[in-house]
């Protein structure tokens, strides 16, 4: 059984490493940071965005300035993470269709962490189209100058632009950047969490496509972890897995 487990681990980690890219966490202006993870298997991008917990903050794609039409996201309130676009040097406007699925909105002291994902190509002309082959991406960011969510001028010191560089994850990255895999996926209902020996999974949460929390499991199990979704309908779900050093989102499909 142990040999089978090791073989499954090697197969799944090899499969994973050929299909994942990451920008790593990049600091933005002191109060913010961003990380983009690309998954070619699912054609989805996951954004981990950190910003101040008491005010608005924004992050834009494929731009170095506030160009009209720039695809962006904005923390409009403590509970509203909005899929927006810029219309020049003024407050952004929300897209008619909200394509980001938020699975984490947590506050730790003065920092808010958002984890959200969407398809590379949403079919929405307002959204930037990700290409797994990209090696870099220009981004812009800004945050409010005061402790409120009024989308007014941010001030010259509270905004900026940078370029994210992407790397394809290799087997050495598996233990630190992406600690676990899920099999089988798709599944008829039971999903097994496969992890390396250095990783302890502390919590597993499952959400539907509307970001509704369906199941939460607290576990310190050092062996295999199984998540049973047999009682739920066929379709797409998202599994948030928390380890000692990381938090990740996995798309899962129930047949």
UniProtKB/TrEMBL annotation:
Pfam families: Por_Secre_tail. CDD domains: DOMON_DOH. It comes from the Bacteria. Keywords: Signal. InterPro entries: DOH_DOMON, Secre_tail. Residues 1-19 form the signal peptide. Residues 182-252 form the Secretion system C-terminal sorting domain. This is T9SS type A sorting domain-containing protein. It comes from Flavobacterium erciyesense. The lineage of its organism: Bacteria, Pseudomonadati, Bacteroidota, Flavobacteriia, Flavobacteriales.
């Amino acid at each position: 059984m142990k040999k089978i487990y090791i073989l499954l681990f090697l197969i799944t980690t090899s499969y994973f490493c050929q299909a994942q890219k990451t920008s790593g966490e990049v600091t933005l202006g002191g109060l913010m940071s961003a990380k983009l993870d690309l998954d070619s298997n699912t054609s989805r991008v996951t954004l981990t965005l950190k910003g101040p917990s008491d005010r608005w903050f924004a992050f834009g794609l494929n731009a170095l300035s506030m160009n009209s039409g720039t695809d962006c996201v904005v923390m409009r309130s403590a509970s509203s993470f909005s899929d927006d676009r810029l219309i020049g040097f003024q407050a952004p406007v929300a897209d008619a269709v909200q394509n980001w699925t938020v699975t984490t909105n947590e506050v730790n002291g003065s920092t808010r962490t958002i984890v959200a994902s969407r398809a590379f190509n949403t079919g929405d002309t307002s959204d930037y189209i990700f290409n797994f082959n990209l090696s870099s991406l220009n981004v812009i960011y800004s945050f409010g100058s005061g402790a409120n969510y009024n989308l007014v001028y941010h001030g010259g010191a509270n905004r900026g632009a940078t370029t994210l560089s992407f790397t394809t994850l290799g087997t050495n990255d598996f233990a630190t950047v992406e600690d676990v895999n899920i099999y089988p996926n798709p599944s008829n209902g039971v999903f097994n969490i496969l992890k390396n020996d250095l990783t302890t999974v502390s919590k597993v949460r499952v959400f539907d496509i509307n970001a509704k929390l369906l199941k939460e499991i607290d576990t310190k199990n050092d062996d295999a972890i199984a998540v049973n979704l047999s009682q739920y309908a066929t379709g797409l779900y998202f599994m948030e897995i928390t380890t000692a050093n990381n938090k990740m989102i996995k798309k899962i499909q129930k047949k």
